[in-house]
Amino acid sequence: DEPTNNLDIESIDALADAINEYRGAVIVVSHDARLITETACQLWVVEERGLSQIDGDFDDYKREVLEALGEVVISRPRD
Predict the structure, then answer these.
(1) GO MF annotations for this entry (predicted)?
(2) Would you give the DSSP letter of residue 51?
């Protein structure tokens, strides 16, 4: 959980390299976009009491979320 707390950029990069080189399974729980982006991982998101597998990378997920937020803002009735 949050493996990058108190790490500098060089240490985060070293951690990402170690994760990418490891041949076993690693489960990382993080809000750190740098670590998520730098690791070759399958992205799963916990939201709305469920677990969703994301097709694509972290940038695809961010784009999907921003598009959904735009739809919410656009479809919100005005007072």
Answers:
(1) ATP binding
(2) E
- CA 72 distance to own-chain centroid: 21
Report CA torsion sign: 67, 30, 27, 49.
Answer: negative
Q: What is the pLDDT of residue 68?
A: 84
Q: Which amino acid is at 68?
A: A
Place of tokens 């080189």: 21
Please name the residues in contact with 57: beta carbons below 8 A apart, sequence gap of 6 or more.
37, 43
* Per-domain residue ranges of the chain: 1-40, 42-79
Residue 4 · residue 32 · CB < 8 Å: yes
- Report the predicted TM-score, pTM, of the whole model to 2 decimal places: 0.66
Reported as a single tens digit per residue, the pLDDT across 43-66 is 888 888 899 898 888 888 888 888
